[in-house]
Specification:
The protein is of the alpha+beta class and 503 residues long. It contains 14 helices and 14 strands.
Length: 503
């Protein structure tokens, strides 16, 4: 059948996505000539892979419109592969947006799009169901990340894109690898395997390392990641920090490094870096133990990870019999064994962390956080800090000056001198004002740090936003707090000394 290319919809990393004229339910993917490394994208191996996928579809998922599966290959007049025809999927948001935490008061304009707990559990169930169909046909997803998954708000259905990147073996055992994966979704055994290859002098990339790489167990690892984020306000399970660390100043590991360093948030000695993460106790014991199997036991032995069938059963039972409705928030349903809604508690902690003299000070809307560069976020933060800081400082120094001159007028002194021999004894007021100035600086820096960490948490839900510029600024603010504390102590000692000498 002949298809005519329509309007361009998206320019992706490997190719362009077009509408298909007179076929509103289809799309056309046309590959680019080269990838970012200059390597040709269309190869005989890719054509063989697509031919195999076309002939062996996951019928149930294709029939339900769940997967953008290759239906027909697109070739030029000389028979050269150009791309393929696939179903047009019906979804509202990528899974990342489902994860992005929103507070009912601080993010009121976008909170209506934040799914309820029931909806998020349903999405998890649908992920399990789809993964089961893929595995039943012998397909491994491999790059099982949030950018390749869409969600339909009205039905809770999940939709899978970029299926031509799947890790596939044909009937003859020929393997077509997944050779790239989003940071933060690489199973620990694959990380260790790649490290061993590098130590032995072999190439350190997924396209060249010896097999096996991706397996059903690596898909189970990613499935557990998705389910954790769905149940825990979008928090990455490997964004943990040490239990004694301060959430506003600690720098959690990110991406594959976090997985490599075993930064699981509920591992003994760790805690979540994000204050909006509900505690471990908010989960039913059997679901918490499944996360332990996925991220702790499965680290030593991937075969111990829960399968999609186990997750399906656990989530279905939780949705059907394990939840009760929160009386304060209609989007919150929680473990019936608890007396208090853990999601409301998490919202309250987040609200307190974000509010000070001005509610939501320095904080941007989640959509804006994702669109701004690191430099723009820092610039906005500095600008807002300076405005309020200057106002408070002016009030402080004007008040100190008025008290100083008022006291001096009361005793008949009308002049101010820099000569300590002529001081009346009230000059120490300005040193105390300087101490208060240091405390004000510390307050605003700590406030800015807390919100900066929140911005980092929001952006690094998507591993492509690993902004080292934000972390450098975070370190500068931490150093500034230490310096201001030291200065305040020195000034306090000087002020006390002057009071003893002159008063």
């Amino acid at each position: 059948m002949s298809y005519t290319r329509g309007a361009l919809l998206r320019d992706g990393g490997e190719g362009y996505i077009y509408e298909v004229e007179n076929h509103p339910h289809l799309l056309m993917k046309i590959y680019k000539d080269e990838d970012l490394s200059g390597n040709p994208i269309v190869t005989p191996e890719l054509e063989h892979k697509l031919e195999y996928m076309k002939s062996n579809p996951p019928e149930t998922l294709v029939a339900k419109g769940v997967v953008a599966w290759p239906l027909e290959l697109v070739k030029d007049e000389w028979g050269k592969l150009l791309g393929f025809i696939m179903p047009r999927l019906d979804f509202n948001e990528h899974l990342l947006r489902i994860y992005s935490y929103r507070h009912p008061d601080l993010d009121s304009s976008g909170y209506h799009k934040f799914p309820s707990i029931k909806s998020r559990i349903s999405i998890g169930i649908n992920l399990c169901s789809a993964l089961h169909e893929f595995h039943k046909k012998g397909y491994i997803i491999g790059d099982f990340n949030h950018e390749n998954i869409g969600v339909n708000y009205s039905t809770g259905e999940v939709k899978f894109m970029d299926c031509d990147s799947f890790h596939i073996a044909d009937n003859n055992g020929k393997l077509f690898r997944t050779n790239v994966i989003m940071a933060g979704y690489l199973a620990p055994e694959i990380i260790f395997h790649c490290q061993q290859e590098r130590a032995q002098g072999r190439p350190y990339d997924l396209d060249s390392v010896t097999l096996p790489t991706f397996t059903k167990q690596s898909d189970y690892f990613c499935l557990a990641l998705h389910i954790f984020k769905l149940l825990m306000n979008g928090v990455d399970p490997f964004r943990g920090i040490k239990s004694e660390a301060t959430g506003s100043t600690a720098s959690p590991f990110v991406g594959n490094e976090a997985i490599e360093r075993n930064a699981y948030v509920f591992r003994e000695g760790n805690k979540p870096s994000a204050v909006f993460c509900p505690p471990a106790e908010s989960l039913p014991a059997h679901i918490l133990s499944m996360f332990t199997r996925a991220f702790v036991d499965g680290r030593r032995n991937p075969a111990l990870r829960p399968t999609e069938a186990e997750w399906y059963e656990a989530l279905y039972q939780y949705l059907s019999h394990g939840l009760k409705q929160c009386s304060e928030n209609e989007k919150h349903q929680f473990n019936f064994a608890l007396h208090q809604c853990p999601y409301c508690v998490a919202d309250d902690k987040h609200y307190k962390a974000q509010t000070g003299f001005v509610t939501g000070m320095y904080r941007e809307e989640p959509q804006k956080i994702m669109s701004l560069s690191a430099d723009e976020i820092i610039k906005n933060s500095r600008k807002q800090t300076r405005k309020l800081h200057v106002t408070v400082s002016l009030i402080l120094w004007i008040t100190a000056a008025m008290i100083y001159f008022g006291w001096n007028l009361a005793v008949g002194n009308i002049g101010f001198t820099l000569n300590p021999a002529n001081w009346s004894g009230y000059e120490f007021l300005f040193i105390f004002a300087a101490i208060i100035e240091c405390c004000i600086e510390i307050y605003f820096c700590r406030k800015e740090l807390a919100v900066l960490q929140d911005h980092i948490n929001q952006r690094e839900i998507d591993p492509k936003y690993h902004d080292y510029g934000l972390r450098e600024y975070q370190d500068k603010l931490t150093g500034k707090i230490t310096m201001m504390g030291f200065v305040a102590v020195v000034l306090f000692i000087i002020a006390i000394s002057l009071m003893v000498i002159f008063v």
